[in-house]
Amino acid sequence: MKYDLVYLAVGAVLGAYVRYQITGEGFFIGSLPISVLLVNIAGSFILGASSTAVSGLGLDGRYTIFIGIGFCGSMTTMSSFAFESVNLIGVGELATAGADIVLNVGGSLGAIILGRALATVVFGLA
């Protein structure tokens, strides 16, 4: 408990750095923003895999603080996703906004499921 804030802070700094590196330039396919989609899906996959491994292997809860809350929490971004989607709606790109919403939400949920499944297989947690 004494060092929980350190684990959280180090994870958050690393996650923010990764997010900045991926989203700094802003990748697009047409008008569809891809950078935020990538960090949200990658972070969800990492969260699904790590949370399953931590609980299934009985690892120290500080791994969850470091990876789940710190790293994934600062790497992923609901606010940027919402901002981009609202901007697309604002300029009349309704189909692209819809795709952005479906891909971010569906992709993130799917990535959690895939991460959990992979960790279950890799660590023999079935």
Notes on the protein architecture:
The protein has 126 residues and is mainly α. The protein has one domain (4-120). It contains five helices and two strands, in the order αββαααα. Strand 1 (28-29) and strand 2 form a beta hairpin. Helix 1 (4-23) packs antiparallel against helix 2 and helix 4 packs antiparallel against helix 5 (94-122). The longest helix has 29 residues, at 94-122. The protein starts with a helix and ends with a helix. The model has no long low-confidence stretch (mean pLDDT 96).
Task: Kindly report the oligomeric state of this protein.
Answer: single chain
Structural class by helix and strand composition: mainly alpha
Number of strands: 2
Q: Can you give the mean pLDDT?
A: 96
Terminal CA distance reads 30 Å
**What helical percentage do the residues reach?**
over 70%
Estimate what percentage of residues fall within beta strands.
Answer: under 5%
Could you provide a short overview of the structure?
With 126 residues, the chain is mainly α. It is built from five helices and two strands, in the order αββαααα.
What is the topological layout?
Elements: H1 4-23, E1 28-29, E2 32-33, H2 35-57, H3 62-75, H4 78-90, H5 94-122
Antiparallel strand pairs: 1-2
Helix pairs in contact: 1-2, 1-3, 2-3, 2-5, 4-5
